[in-house]
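ARCHIVE RECORD
Type: protein–small molecule complex
Small molecule: 2-oxoglutaric acid
Source of inputs: curated submission
Record status: active
Notes field left blank by submitter.
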Amino acid sequence: MRGAGRVAHDGPMDDAMVESFLEDGFVKIEGAFPPRVAEDCARLLWKETGYDPEDPASWKAPVVWVAGMAQGPFAAAVNSPVLHEAFDVLVGEGRWQPRYSLGSFPLRFPHEEEPDDAGWHIEGSYLPEGAAHWHTNLRSRERALLMLFLFSEVTEADAPTRIRVGSHLDVPPVLEPYGEAGASFLELGPKVAAASADRPLAHATGHPGDVYLCHPFLVHAAQPHHGTHPRFMAQPPLYLDAPLELDRTDGNYSAVEFAIRRGLSETADPRAPEGARGTARPATTDPQSKLSPPANA
Ligand SMILES: O=C(O)CCC(=O)C(=O)O
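STRUCTURE (tokenized, with ligand):
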């Protein structure tokens, strides 16, 4: 198993972040928001569970899902300058929507019972009219990133999220045949699990205040918690402000778009012209446009 890659953010973010994101499908930003903010978030989350932090006998279920939290500490966590800069680097300036809340918290408790939600999958990002399950398509409709926010200390023993490193490149060929309509996570789950089975494993461990920014197609899974400390995390989307484009005439691709093209190119006809196979550089690694492509490019 390999360790989760991390990106320093004491200087300007740059090509190292983009390269790591393209290769692995995620970057870990340590200290993305202050530990004190994480503590405040955790206190509010405990209230939602109805459990007593000091009394393990009260931790009745292996996982408690909390939907949306819009109190100040959650808005503060997602709006740190370092995260905004990273969103610009990976998604592109003006191409993502600011958020003022966080959602989708799988709070995992040490438990003998196995959770029923620990299969390999990618996230659904939109609910088509009349559909029962969330869907994903090749252009990652609505979702720019999957984000993992840590609110507790997460060691190997605390049920960290399992990540298949580089699996975001296996998913575009699975999605391509479904076109714009996409497919539900139920249909896609077994296919993306099979396509990424040989990828090395990483675990989303870290400290309160660390954030993993993941490509929306990163294949990941929960795991049973047989440790001692509850694991508090959020896994919300970063929403797109403009749809992803996979065929830009000016080549001004974001890192998220570029990775999708790279995933497609790995199964494409090797005789196809280079530009058509996604082998050009993303705009974010062009030294002339160091950080992010312009909005609506
Ligand atoms: O709880 C976790 O570690 C991951 C949960 C997850 O990926 C999900 O249920 O979508």
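CURATOR ANNOTATION: The chain has seven helices and twelve strands.
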